[in-house]
């Protein structure tokens, strides 16, 4: 069994609060809604690659097979969509971004990340939010391959932020010095999106 991260590191806010819901959220129970803004791509596993580039010492590309050969870890906890649904007690396995960033080597000037999907969907995150065992690229949900409608074969998972930050069919993580708002952020969603602070829209605390 890979190690399980509860999403709690030091003084940071935990992603999971043992069944408690962030403000304004409700639990969908056994359901898992699909939220996709673009046409769903259908990718064979042998087509999947992930590149970490931008302000890094060693821009690196991994195939899915190469990602699977890295040390894996499992997130066990909750996910929260800004449209108000939460799903408690999910379980995803993949590779921590700590491992990928450790290989690529962020430069000192790197402060932000833009996650890009093969479809062109983008979302921006503070670099600090994808370190400290709080972000993964995942291919496994509950012990099964991640279904295509949920971003399979490979998606980003940043469960302590609203789920729009977790780009499905992720193919590139670009480290930048300046913040570059992504698809939903340009359309009014919050830059960071902490569900416990209800950072839903631009202008929220
Ligand atoms: N490529 C891509 N990733 C995406 C989205 C999308 O439309 N396209 N939607 C986001 C939103 S708003 C949410 S809530 C989650 C939904 O993931 P799910 O469909 O697996 O529930 O994916 C996020 N990642
Ligand atoms: Mo969402």
TrEMBL record:
Transmembrane parts of this sequence: none
Pfam families per record: Oxidored_molyb
Region of interest: Disordered: 1-30
Gene3D superfamilies recorded: Oxidoreductase, molybdopterin-binding domain
Coiled-coil region(s): none
Superkingdom of origin: Bacteria
Annotated Oxidoreductase molybdopterin-binding domain residues: 41-184
Protein name: Sulfite oxidase-like oxidoreductase
Organism whose genome encodes this protein: Nocardioides lentus
């Amino acid at each position: 069994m890979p190690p399980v991260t509860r999403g709690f590191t030091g003084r940071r806010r935990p992603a999971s609060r043992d069944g408690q819901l962030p403000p304004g959220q409700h639990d969908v129970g056994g359901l898992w809604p699909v939220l996709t803004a673009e046409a769903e791509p259908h990718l064979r596993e042998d087509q999947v690659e992930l590149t970490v580039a931008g302000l890094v010492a060693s821009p690196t590309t991994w195939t899915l097979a190469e990602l699977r050969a890295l040390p894996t870890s499992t997130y066990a906890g909750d996910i929260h969509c800004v449209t108000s649904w939460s799903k408690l007690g999910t379980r995803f396995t993949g590779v921590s971004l700590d491992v990928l960033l450790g290989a690529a080597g962020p430069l000192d000037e790197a402060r932000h990340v833009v996650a890009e999907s093969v479809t062109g969907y983008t979302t921006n995150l503070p670099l600090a939010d994808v370190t400290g065992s709080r972000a993964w690229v995942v291919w496994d949900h509950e012990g099964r391959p991640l279904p295509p409608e949920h971003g399979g074969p490979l998606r980003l998972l940043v469960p302590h932020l609203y789920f729009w930050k977790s780009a499905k069919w992720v193919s590139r993580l670009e480290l930048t010095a300046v913040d570059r708002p992504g698809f939903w952020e340009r359309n009014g969603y919050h830059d960071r999106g902490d569900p416990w602070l209800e950072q839903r829209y631009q202008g929220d605390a």
